[in-house]
Fold:
Amino acid sequence: MTFTFRPLDPLKDAELLHSWVTHPKAAFWMMQDARLVDVERAYMEIAADAYHHALLGLRDGEPAFLMEYYDPAHRELAGLYEAQPGDIGMHFLTPATDAPVHGFTKAVITAVMARLFEDPAVRRVVVEPDVANTAVHALNEAVGFVPDREIQKPEKRALLSFCTRERFFDIQDSLAATGVTA
Structure:
């Protein structure tokens, strides 16, 4: 699967995002009760933030998933771990669908990681999913994340995990050598 990315437009994309983030499948996104205006406001704040960014992942030119990345020294994880130069935080969301495609979500997280590592300054990706989100823990492990420890964030108990550039590309190289694709 091939994906492209474009900056999220908080007003143009709000209705689509609203349908994604309020769906029961997106419970870990913690926006279940958000109104359209709440989604617009949240993504306008991200658009105005120098340390937090949102992109739409496109498949065949159509929105297929949401990707956010942030500077963990200034957002989300500030003060909760010792950020290193080259760290970048990441979130991604694949929307609910009536016609799931086998391997889609793994292909999405692989594309998100590859996109982040396109920046040579990025040395390590940091994630902090809810400890109860076992599905995303498995996906994270599949692309190279190694759990570090549980941390308490204001909104959740999270599993702090890291994936280095080298580990991600070693896993991708191993998969390619065996003929397996993301």
User: Anything to note?
Assistant: The longest strand covers residues 62-70.
